[in-house]
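ok new one. same drill as before - structure tokens go in, u give me an amino acid for every spot. 239 of them this time. try not to just spam alanines like last time pls lmao
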């Protein structure tokens, strides 16, 4: 459309009109005035938070060389990620840039920046994690810290016997198996967490609780149920 407007702008006044298949004749003066219309201030605080900015969502992405690309639509950003032309999106950063001052003014709180937190965390020789970032942001130095726990909530009566993933062949399960993901079982003399069952419930995939990222497949007859993983589960962060 913009290319068409440029062509109309560069067309002399005395150029004869050419008939086309369009039934309605465009008003040439009105069309030429479109680029010169003054739009509302899209960066105003009221428009940003009311959804009346008149612009569609634009997501900036980062390419493989850590350089920001032109902001694109979410669909094109997903295409870039799939083609490995971009590593990660900055959708969360864009959201925070829009709402951070509203949060600061509403909550009357102080704010900091990521590079300050990173500098202080490296200076204290702490690894990257949410709890360590919170400790540094709060001004922690040598205080005694509590042990962080990760919480997982599982439905107690999940009647869905399968989860169909988009782009994959759907599973056809006929029954709900006894062991479900998140259950705690004992194999030989070690405790494992159930990742899932396969081969019509005859085999089970286990995750080790002592060795990180260790997954084994065993026959379901060789494991012993310790506890169902329903409700709220707690485990130490990193274990």
């Amino acid at each position: 459309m913009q290319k068409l407007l440029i062509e109309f702008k560069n067309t002399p006044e005395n150029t004869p009109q050419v008939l086309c298949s369009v039934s309605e004749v465009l008003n040439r003066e009105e069309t030429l005035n479109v680029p010169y219309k003054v739009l509302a201030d899209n960066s105003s605080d009221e428009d940003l938070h009311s959804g009346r900015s008149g612009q569609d969502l634009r997501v900036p992405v980062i390419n493989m060389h850590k350089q920001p690309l032109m902001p694109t639509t979410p669909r094109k950003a997903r295409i870039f990620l799939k083609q490995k032309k971009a590593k990660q999106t900055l959708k969360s950063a864009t959201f925070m840039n829009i709402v951070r001052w509203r949060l600061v003014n509403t909550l009357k709180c102080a704010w900091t920046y990521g590079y300050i937190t990173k500098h202080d965390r490296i200076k204290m020789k702490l690894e990257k994690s949410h709890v360590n970032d919170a400790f540094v942001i709060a001004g922690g130095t040598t205080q005694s810290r509590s042990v962080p726990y990760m919480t997982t909530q599982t439905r107690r009566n999940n009647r869905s016997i399968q989860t169909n993933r988009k782009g994959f062949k759907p599973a056809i399960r006929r029954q709900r198996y006894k062991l479900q993901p998140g259950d705690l079982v004992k194999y030989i003399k070690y405790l494992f967490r159930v990742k899932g069952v396969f081969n019509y419930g005859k085999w089970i995939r286990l995750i080790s609780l002592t060795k990180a990222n260790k997954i084994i497949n065993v026959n379901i007859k060789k494991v012993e149920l310790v506890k169902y993983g329903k409700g709220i589960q707690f485990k130490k962060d990193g274990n």
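Helices lie at 2-9, 28-32, 45-50, 74-82, 91-107, 114-123, 130-137. and btw The first strand starts at residue 61 and ends at 62.
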